[in-house]
Amino acid sequence: MEHVPPPAEELARLDRELAELDARRAQLLTRRAWLLAALRPPAPTAAPGWNPSAWGAPPSGRPGAPAQPWGYVPKQPSTPRSAQNVLLTLGGLLLAVAAVAFTLVSWGSMGIGGRSAVLAAVTLGALLAPAVLLRRGLAATAEALAALALVLTLLDVYAVHAVAAPDTDGLGFTAVASAVLAALWTAYGLALGKLRLPLPAAVVLAQWPLLFWAWAAGAPALVVGWALLATAVLDGVIALRGKGPGVRVTACVGGSVMGFSALMVGLALSTSASGPLGAATPGVLLLAAAAAALAGAWRAPKGFARTGGVVAGLAAVAAVGGVPAAALSDGWRVLAYLLCGLALAGVVRAGLPRDAMRGVLAASGAVVACALMWALPSLAAVLLGPVTLLSDVWAGSPDGFRSALGSTLPWSEPAAAPVVLALVAGLLGTAYRWWPSVERIAAPLGAQEEAPKPGAASTAAGTPDAAPNAAGTPGAAWTAPPGAGAPWYTAGGAGARRRPSGAALRGAAGAGALALGWGALLLAGLVLDVPYAVAVAGETALVGGLLALAVRGAGSGRGASAVPVTALAGAVSGAVSVGLLSLASEGAAYAVFGALTVLFAGAAVRAGAEVPRAVFAVASVVWGTVLTGFAGRSLDLDPHEAAPLVLVVPALTVLLGARLRRNPVALPVELTGALGALVAVGLAASDAPFLALVLALCGVLAAGAAVRPERRPVAGYLAAALFVLAAWVRLAASEVSFPEAYTLPVTVPALVVGVLRRRGDPEASSWAAYGPGLAATLLPSLAVAWTDTDWLRPLLLGVAALVITLLGARHRLQALLVLGGVVLALDGLHELAPYVAQVAGALPRWLPPALAGLLLLVVGATYEQRLRDARRLKDALGRMR
Question: Which segment of 309-318, 348-357, 524-533 scores lowest on mean pLDDT?
């Protein structure tokens, strides 16, 4: 029976549906209005004074279809000022050139009073004129004269030094002059606040007093560094408290350059110090730079705060780590900086602002990354060094691990490399083990930024965050989809920026700990120079441990998969490395590759996921194939003689595939076995009889795989091709040149397959059943028969073609009739060609054209009848299969 809701519930449901329809209708009307406005030509500029705050109609005259974004206020028309700016710039430039020429050329022709009066009058006039021009509203002209005044003050300084104080030190005079000019232009810019040039120019001049003073005094590099740092601190204060964007930008650029220079000076002095005491004094400079950067980050905006935190962290590491590093040898200095970089992680308890804290932690991560990059070349030498053993396999067991690598390590003292890797691995492993505690400690870093107000982005782009809908009520926030050329007003809001989850971060920490710990153990063997047997056994054991981790997995959650994936990658790469390392000794090679085959096969049996299981199984097949190659070398067999031995593993993969059936691992295993068979073919390519044998064996394996229904479509054709190819290679090796010997082994099986197919499917086409088999023999034989001067091959080919044609006519098979008839006709033409040529030579020259013309007349007279005969022949052939 049908359920009827109560009236109140039904009424509420209808109201909800009507509200949804109204909202959708309003959305579609808004979109329609915008499309109409976009299709019309641009509307003329609105009359001055239109204000959208009065909720009047937009300039387009159509309510709801604004030609401009909502809230657009047209500006008053104004004349272009480009010409005025060009004229003022040229005028100021010419005046500056004139002043320079006067100072350098005409100065000496005047007395001391005239010189002072002219220069002072011109400078004073250039300084006072902008104030008068600003009161009259001529701001551009005032800026041009202010620039001229700046040039004149610089010329005044040059003139004073050249005439009044020629014996003073140039650097010292420049330091004092730049300080005086900076103060003068600061006061001038503050007095005339509407000018934009004086204050940035004062900031530029303020960069040089301390630097030139230190330079003039012959101060050591450390004092120069302090001068640069003091200037950078002054720039930072100006950048935070300066007036106007021009001043702040100039101060930021100057502070960045001066601060970077101070840091480079301190770092160079710290790294080149001869002892801890020598590194302590530049360390104080670096610590002061770190404190200044951190103080600036405390009050700077978000992006600058993070940059300041990074600079503070790196400077602190260089300052503190440089002292113990100066007492250590070159191979151990990186450890001192690494410890200091790791200590920066304690900043999470310091109560710094979030952005500055993130910057300091980024600096800590950068130090750790640099230390790991320092250690990676040694690890790469351990993993890739055994490649050199490929040139001399089984030359004999070396004395130690280092001599087995066969190459010189990139570091002279790699003793600290395993310590660095082990230290970082231990910290990451600790974080992975006690991840909840790490999350509680790092909780201040996970605070979300204040979400932007709805429509803030659209308002910044010139679109509203809300607007009345068709009913006159405010709508939802409007957003523009990606790629839209104009706002597409739909309800919705911007989602927060996605960040890695805690599980993903924990998995990354665990993966990093595993990879670095494995590298530390390998490097430890290198540093200790363990015996060769111990190195091989140790690396094999590490591969077994990584396989166990990869099979078992570690942790839980979405990010925990990083640990087994890292273990899988490490196991495969470690297996390759230890396999190459074992090539120095025959016994070691058999032991290592045998152990790897068993380990990876066991991992494939125990693994639960499909992808790791397939990787393990494929690797096991590869190691087993290498073992069969070793057997051939141990038996002193040539490569082509060892090729059949290599096929043992592909044969096992075929049997294993039949056992696994439709298991997802079966296909990768069989494909890997096929690659092993391809290797065997390559080994036997130098000897044709062995190549034929190997191809035949591969065909047997493919035929065995084709017994299974799921492999039959590919393996069946592959088996046939391999058998045919094996027969051809064997015939070529026996110097057989008759084409029928190559084509008949293809034709007979193909015809047998065609007969079986026609029995199963009587409606199958004769071309599909018999066409390929017949063409494989008839066409090559016909091509050879046309160049054969003997009579036996054309006779046999004609008899075979006649039999095929008769069979096609008897059983109404189109392929047999057409192929047999065409070959029979061409073969007969070949036999009649000499006689035709002989008769044609005996006839008069006018007779062939006459006979051709007569033939054309007869055909033309009976054209309709011939056409009907051709159609009947076509229909008759079409009715055949």
Answer: 348-357
- 370 in helix, strand or coil? helix
Tens of pLDDT, residue by residue over 554-605, are 434 444 478 889 999 999 999 999 999 999 888 999 999 999 999 999 999 8
Cα–Cα distances in angstroms (integers) from residue 55 to residues 51, 63, 95, 138, 472, in the given order? 8, 10, 54, 38, 11
CA-closest candidate to residue 570, choices 379, 836, 851: 379
The pLDDT of residue 538: 92
Tell me the three state secondary structure of residue 478.
strand
Compute CA distances 711 → 408, 696, 756, whole Å. Answer: 50, 19, 20
Residue 751 has what pLDDT?
A: 82
Q: Kindly indicate the confidence band of residue 844, based on its pLDDT and cuts at 50, 70 and 90.
A: low
What are 490's strand-pairing partners? 479
Q: What is the pLDDT of residue 77?
A: 39
Q: How far, in Å, CA of 284 to CA of 290, rounded?
A: 10
Rounded CA-CA distance 362/501 in Å is 19
**H/E segment holding residue 479:** strand 478-479
Q: Is 446 helix (H, G, I), strand (E, B) or coil?
A: helix
Q: Which residue has the tokens 């001391």?
A: 112
**Burial group, residue 399, by CB count within 10 angstroms (0-12, 13-18, 19+):** exposed
Give 392 or 85, the one with higher predicted confidence.
Answer: 392
CA distances from 750 to 710, 745, 756 (A): 22, 9, 10
The span from the CA of 372 to the CA of 417, in Å, is 8
Long-range contacts of 699-704 (CB under 8 A, 24+ apart): 699/723, 699/726, 701/647, 701/650, 701/651, 701/654, 701/677, 704/654, 704/658
CA neighbor of 279 nearest in space, from 311, 337, 318, 315:
318
Which pTM was predicted? 0.67
**Cα distance between residue 836 and residue 848, in whole Å:** 12
Give the residue among 518, 288, 530, 293 at the shortest CA–CA distance from 402. 530
Cβ count near 172 (within 10 Å): 14
Distances (CA, A) of 138 to 88, 131, 143, 196, 334: 11, 10, 9, 14, 62
**How far, in Å, CA of 605 to CA of 659, rounded?**
14
Q: Are the C-beta atoms of 438 and 432 separated by less than 8 Å? A: no
Backbone dihedral region for residue 467 (phi beyond 0: left; psi -120 to 50: alpha; all else: beta): beta
Contact indicator for 616, 600 with CB cutoff of 8 Å: yes
Each residue of 154-198: pLDDT tens digit?
Answer: 877 777 777 667 777 778 888 888 899 999 988 888 888 778 888
Q: Which residues of 681-696 are buried (b: 16+ CB within 10 A; e: fewer)?
A: bebbeebbebbbbbbb
**What number of other Cβ atoms are within 10 A of residue 374's Cβ?**
20
C-alpha 323/C-alpha 335 separation (Å) is 12
Placement of tokens 């990093």 in the chain:
512
Show Cβ contacts of residue 222 under 8 Å, excluding neighbours closer than 6 positions: 265, 266, 269, 281, 282, 285
- Measured CA to CA, the distance from residue 253 to residue 258 in angstroms comes to 9
Q: How far is residue 716's CA from residue 722's CA, in Å, rounded to a whole number?
A: 10
* Cα–Cα distance for residue pair 696/45, rounded to 1 Å: 86
CA-to-CA distance for 685 and 680, rounded, in angstroms?
A: 9
Positive or negative: CA dihedral 453, 457, 461, 466: negative
Phi/psi class of residue 735: alpha, beta or left (left: φ > 0; alpha: ψ in -120 to 50)?
A: left
User: Which are the contacts of 615, defined by CB distance < 8 A and separation ≥ 6?
Assistant: 568, 572
Helices 639-646 and 688-706: angle between axes, nearest 10 degrees: 10
**Max Cα separation, the chain?**
133
**What does the alpha-carbon distance between residue 576 and residue 596 come to, in Å, rounded to a whole number?**
10
Element (H, E) at 490: strand 490-491
